Description:
This protein is an all-alpha fold.
Amino acid sequence: MTAQAATASRYFLGALAVALLLAWPCPRAWSQGAGDPAAGRTLAEGWCSACHVVTPDQHGASSNGAPPFAVIARMKWATPTSLRVFLQTPHNRMPDLHLTRGEIADVSAYILSLRTEP
């Protein structure tokens, strides 16, 4: 093996090890739990209801095209992880709400509680 190939191999193995460590669930993440849907509903009613229909009994929101939470809940990609990532990432149409990790877990849990089977 050439020196260049050996260096590339070490780099690849090191990057693979780092990726595996980052992907491995840690006890701190386990302790965060799945979130509290009731707390998430309260947050959503206060922060999200101007643009989204967040509860089944809400009659309307603004006409900005933001999807209702029940529709988001039924999307195939909607998982606790994907919702948390989405809520932590700034988006052009969505304001940066500066939610804590716990609040994000709560809102995600609430959204997923709205999921109904087709």
